[in-house]
Amino acid sequence: xxxxxxxxxxxxxxxxxxxxxxxxxxxxxxxxxxxxxxxxxxxxxxxxxxxxxxxxxxxxxxxxxxxxxxxxxxxxxxxxxxxxxxxxxxxxxxxxxxxxxxxxxxxxxxxxxxxxxxxxxx
Length: 122
Prior knowledge:
Helix content: under 10%
Structural class: mainly beta
Radius of gyration: 13 Å
Number of strands: 11
Order of helices and strands: EEEEEEEEEEE
Strand content: over 45%
Shape: globular
Largest sheet: 7 strands, mixed
Distance between the termini: 40 Å
Oligomer: single chain
């Protein structure tokens, strides 16, 4: 079992930055891949970024590539999502998730955090 807790969301103006954190606990959490997803009102949950258990392999959606950076610190059992050049269309609830093998598909993730709201004002 892996428990995930996100933090770092908030309200920011267009062009601003935020850093989200996802603290993991539970057995072998550092051996799991981590993913960030987001869900805007009325829309399906979508993949944002993912990182392998070692941190070597990183994956991004086309809409955030070049603006967002995913990282992890296994000593702290924490994953991060640095979000720069934020746009109003980035407004959503952001979730971290974890599973053994990386996937772009939210339905394939076993463990989820509670989510943190990110609002980008125009």
